[in-house]
Design brief:
28% strand; four-stranded antiparallel beta sheet; alpha+beta; eight-stranded mixed beta sheet
Length: 270
């Protein structure tokens, strides 16, 4: 079980960094308000869990685990450190949908953040990282936990130490950290921070993701904007525009980021 616990802690770090398949979708209303939804598809993780767990004692019940629940983030607000006043207002309206089905290897987490103005999306991006780090550690802790009496007490202590590091680690980086964003009414843009990207090889977290990618555990990143009216302008190497010009999609892989990070840049006016 110690090996499995350490595996979960490492997996949590990879998920927090953007590993596996992610979709960020913004639906924008005419007045600038909208809904931002960030979904992580981690079904691949469950296949890895089964492989690592094997026939270990106590793991058979986990193989049957199913979960479908909604968490209102206002209920966990006090457990997330260093929230600004703006972040507190946004988190009070946010929710998280968790779906897990071990037999079918389904595991997804969808964070939903309603917002009142385009500038809120920049705040949501920062808030999402803080929230994801805290919530993911808690979910993993529950996933690995159990009775804290007898022989399980040591296991619970080990888990708390491992996942406590995940909650408090401010050095965990993400692909999004390498871009600069602008959110205004009628305009959205994402530009590569070239100065920072020049040192990407020194990023230990992304180096781990790259290693996982080379092992065949690939990940895709998709961004979707549902606009209130047709786009006047939608530029970028990875940009795809719907026929009615109201939906913009940018989709790529971790390989794209390392080969040509400008692929994920975009400039949209509507």
């Amino acid at each position: 079980m110690k090996k499995l616990s350490r595996f979960f802690a490492i997996a949590a770090l990879l998920i927090l960094s953007g590993c596996f398949d992610t979709v960020q979708e913004s639906t924008i209303n005419d007045d600038g308000s909208g809904l931002f939804v960030s979904t992580m598809d981690m079904g691949k993780l469950l296949g890895m869990v089964k492989m690592v767990a094997g026939e270990k004692e106590g793991m058979k019940d986990m193989d049957k685990m199913k979960k479908d629940t909604t968490i209102y983030l206002k209920d966990i607000r006090d457990s997330i450190k260093n929230l600004s006043d703006a972040e507190k207002k946004l988190i009070d309206k946010a929710s998280l949908k968790v779906i897990m089905n071990m037999p079918d290897e389904i595991f997804s987490m969808a964070f939903s953040f309603p917002y009142s103005q385009p500038a809120d999306v920049a705040t949501i991006n920062n808030l999402l990282k803080k929230t994801k780090q805290n919530v993911m550690a808690d979910q993993m802790e529950k996933f690995m936990g159990g009775d804290t009496s007898g022989t399980d007490e040591k296991k619970a202590m080990d888990n708390n130490l491992l996942l406590g590091d995940v909650k408090s680690d401010s050095s965990i980086s993400e692909v999004d950290d390498y871009y600069k964003y602008e959110y205004k009414k009628g305009k959205i843009s994402k530009k590569l921070n070239k100065e920072k990207y020049a040192n990407v090889e020194n990023d230990k977290t992304l180096a781990s993701l790259k290693e996982m990618n080379q092992m065949g555990i690939s990940s895709t990143m998709k961004t979707i904007f549902n606009l209130p009216r047709p786009a006047k302008k939608a530029e970028g190497k990875g940009v795809k525009l719907s026929t009615d010009r109201k939906k913009v999609t940018i989709e790529g892989s971790l390989d794209d980021f390392f080969e040509d990070a400008s692929y994920f840049e975009y400039e949209i006016e509507y």
